Amino acid sequence: MAAPPPSSSSGISAVVLASILGFVVLIMFTISRVDVLRSFEYGGGGGRFRLDFLGGYYSLSAVQLQTRLPRSVEPQSVLNDSSSSSAISGHRLANSTHLDRKNGESRRKEGLEEGLARARGAIRMAATLSRQQSVKAAVYGKLSGLLNSSSSFIYRNPLAFYQSYMEMEKRFKVYVYEEGELPIVHSGPCKNIYSTEGRFIDEMEHRGGRFRTRDPHAAHVFFMPFSVSWMVRYLFKPLTYAPLQHFVSDYVKVISTQHPFWNRTQGADHFMVSCHDWAPEASKGNPYLYNTSIRVLCNANSSEGFNPQKDVSLPEIKLIGGLFPPQLVSIPPASTPRPYLAFFAGGLHGPIRPALLQHWKDRDPDLQVYQYLPKDSDYFSFMLKSKFCLCPSGYEVASPRILEAIYAGCVPVILSKNYVLPFSDVLRWEAISVQVDIEEIPKLKEVLEAVPEDKYMMLVEGGRAVRKHFLLNTPAKRYDMFHMVLHSIWLRRLNLMLQ
Fold first, then answer.
1. Quick check: 432 and 460 in contact, CB under 8 A?
2. Residue range 408-435: mean pLDDT, rounded
3. Beta bridge partners of 174
4. Binning pLDDT at 50, 70 and 90, where does residue 28 land?
5. In sequence order, which residues have a C-beta less than 8 Å from that of residue 307 and are 6 or more positions away?
6. C-beta neighbour count of 97 within 10 angstroms
7. Is residue 400 within 8 Å of 419, Cβ to Cβ?
8. For residue 326, what is the DSSP state?
9. Which of 41, 47, 86, 317 sits at a 20 to 30 Å CA gap from 309?
10. Would you call 344 helix, strand, or coil by DSSP?
11. Residue 135: predicted pLDDT
12. Closest by alpha carbon to 278, among 208, 194, 387?
């Protein structure tokens, strides 16, 4: 005898609850502001809902809408043959194990997303509080090591950044793929102009701290630890990017066939890191990597496909022999005399430097501009004696001079087009640097001399405060460059802007 149909009360309850939920969401669209976190739960025979409201935002943190059959009317087997029953029982057991595993993975994924939703809520609350002066003053005193009333001006939203960083330390997990062989994978250059690429790979591979997880199901993002710099060294053929693109294509093919994670999001929660100029071209080896994944690049040129909404600008630094310049280990006191207005020394790379040298090389003693430094002159000594350090782009937009200037206590003068500056979703670059349009190079001295003394001292103070965010430490330390890069990736996984 067939089982009777399920009771209609459960289905009606589910429909009613869904209608209520839709009505509540519709009401929230008409509310301009909610200043406290409120949670509403609805339960019943048809399902359970939880809706969180925070600062004018709402999030549906968990939804379960199920219609269950009463135990007394669950379908019964109509097969009496013992062999058939045994076969079906085995089939059911296999299916049950598979479904349990799938459901477990699904629940863990939901748990990760719920954790991210809570992080977004906490960050938005901090952003709201930052607009209340009394709260800001009270909180600054507790944020030792990052914020204080004298240096908070370098951040777009200091409290939101602090809360975001704390949430990152609390939750963020990175899975590093083990596929691939040395030297092109799991290693990178640590002793030249591409050092930030190799140092990040090295830190993530061999330390990683609280952020690395060996369980891919616990990860928020997935790191593909190949080195474009080493691809160029070992695979490059003149006049073509094809070997680099083929390697990237093959690597994505391997991880997407051996693991389910790439296909789950088409690479949106995957990232690569490279400081080589050709990394954007190499990433074209897979269209989803280029268009969807998080690309952490030194060559952060918004006119050549770099998308700051999903990609991350990686600082560039040149470490000769892998060592930090000894002249810049400690910053001189702010009161140290700086006899030169500005300084630059460098080759004729790209379209901007020829104009700079044409107008200012050997033209004015206040602007020390060289193609080649005089014999026995020290590059970093010039930086330490200059108020402003000129940082023109070369063939590509990034320049290690920006970081060198910050280390030297010299205000960076950024001469570039379409360059997305590192950590600009957190930092106010106008508080630590001067940006000059390329068309104003002929008037460069006039532009720099027009900076008021009080503003110049504020820029110097901003540079000293931001220095910790651009240091490479082994092992990495809180708030240093490694962690700031991770934080930029974290923000893109959250899909959140700290404005």
1. no
2. 98
3. 212, 221
4. very low
5. none
6. 10
7. no
8. G
9. 317
10. strand
11. 56
12. 194
Q: What are phi and psi of 180, to 5 degrees?
A: 105, 155
The answer, yes or no, to whether the previous bond of 243 is cis (omega within 30 of 0) is: no
- Structural contact between residues 462 and 489, judged by C-beta atoms closer than 8 angstroms: no
Phi and psi, residue 451, nearest 5°? -75, 120
DSSP string spanning 170-215? HH--EEEP--S-TTTBS----SSTTHHHHHHHHHHHHT-GGGB-S-
Pairing type for strands 57-65 and 47-54 reads: antiparallel
Q: Is 5 helix (H, G, I), strand (E, B) or coil?
A: coil
**In the numeric block, which tokens belong to residue 144?**
């030792």
Contact 439, 332 (CB under 8 A): no
Distance CA 180, CA 252 (A): 11
Backbone φ, ψ for residue 247 (5° rounding): -60, -45
Structure tokens at 467: 């220095």
Phi, psi of 55 (to 5 degrees): 55, 35
- For residue 34, the SS3 value is coil
Amino acid making up residue 102: K
Most confident of 29-43, 63-77, 436-450: 436-450
Pairing of strands 38-44, 47-54: antiparallel
Q: What pLDDT is attached to residue 147? A: 61
Q: Is the dihedral of CA 224, 225, 230, 235 positive or negative?
A: negative
| The two structure tokens encoding residue 336 | 């140290």
In Å, how far are 177, 186, 232, 237, 273 from 322, measured between CA atoms? 26, 18, 20, 27, 18
Cα-based angle 374, 378, 380 (whole degrees, multiple of 5)? 130
Cα separations in angstroms, 448 against 226, 326, 344, 397, 442: 42, 28, 14, 22, 12
345 - beta bridge partners? 370
- Cα distance between residue 308 and residue 315, in whole Å: 14
Q: What is the predicted pLDDT for the residue at 128?
A: 87
For residues 391 and 441, the answer to whether their CB atoms sit within 8 Å is no
Distance of CA 304 to the CA centre of its chain: 19
Please list the residues that pair with 49 across neighbouring strands: 42, 63
Q: How far apart are CA 459 and CA 464, in angstroms?
A: 9
List the one residue out of 349, 453, 455 whose CA is nearest residue 394: 349
φ and ψ at residue 51, rounded to 5 degrees: -125, 125
Which tokens is 154 given?
Answer: 């370098």
CA distances from 407 to 91, 97, 156, 325, 330 (A): 66, 58, 22, 9, 8
Helix, strand or coil, per DSSP, at residue 64: strand
Phi, psi of 450 (to 5 degrees): -80, -10
